[in-house]
């Protein structure tokens, strides 16, 4: 059996063209669930940097408020790697934190809830005696500055820090 000749044109290959996705609650829920929460590209970059600086850490410790991305138990310090869009980075120079212009009735409350939850989580961690550092996605561009910021936050690397 021969394959049908595909009509080329405006839509290129009609067989692979997907119909528009429905804007239904189950589909939107599924789509949003596909957004990564752990082991994201920015988080992996920060993890490699910190490991290269000689620090060791625990990942996503569930017993702590907000499940921090990196936990340094002996130092009583935690680090979050936040995406600028999802966590509403307030830096005016950040190009990743732009608010959507469409469906603002959906996005504004959602992003506001994320920022509020972040503030509550950070406050709970600090009240439990933890130091908190937030690394923003846009800060990954300046590696030297980020490495310096992390080193200043964590103190000396290696076993000398424990004594």
Tell me what the structure shows.
The longest helix is centred in the last third of the chain and has 24 residues, at 104-127. Strand 2 and strand 3 form a beta hairpin. With 163 residues, the chain is α+β, with helices and mostly antiparallel strands. It is built from four helices and four strands. The protein is globular and about 55 Å long. It has a four-stranded mixed β-sheet with strand order 1-2-3-4, sandwiched between helices. It has helices at 25-33, 41-52, 104-127, 143-154; strands at 58-59, 70-72, 77-82, 131-136.
H-E order: HHEEEHEH
Strand content: 5-15%
Average predicted confidence as pLDDT: 83
Question: Helix- and strand-based class?
Answer: alpha+beta
Count every helix, treating DSSP H or I runs of 4 or more residues as helices.
4
Give the end-to-end Cα distance, rounded to a whole number of Å. 75 Å
In short:
Helices cover 35% and strands 10% of the residues. It contains four helices and four strands.
């Amino acid at each position: 059996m021969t394959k049908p000749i595909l009509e080329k044109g405006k839509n290129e290959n009609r067989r692979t063209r997907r119909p528009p996705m429905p804007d239904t609650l189950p589909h939107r829920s599924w789509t949003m669930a596909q957004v990564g929460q752990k082991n994201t590209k920015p988080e992996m970059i920060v993890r490699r940097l910190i490991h290269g600086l000689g620090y060791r850490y625990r990942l996503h410790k569930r017993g702590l408020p907000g499940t921090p991305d990196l936990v340094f138990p002996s130092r009583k310090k935690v680090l979050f790697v936040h995406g600028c869009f999802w966590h509403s980075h307030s830096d005016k120079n950040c190009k990743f934190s732009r608010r959507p212009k469409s469906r603002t009735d959906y996005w504004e409350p959602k992003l506001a809830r994320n920022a509020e939850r972040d503030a509550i989580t950070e406050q709970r961690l600090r009240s439990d005696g933890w130091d908190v550092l937030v690394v923003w996605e846009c800060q990954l561009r300046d590696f030297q500055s980020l490495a310096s910021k992390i080193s200043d936050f964590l103190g000396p690397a290696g076993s000398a820090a424990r004594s």
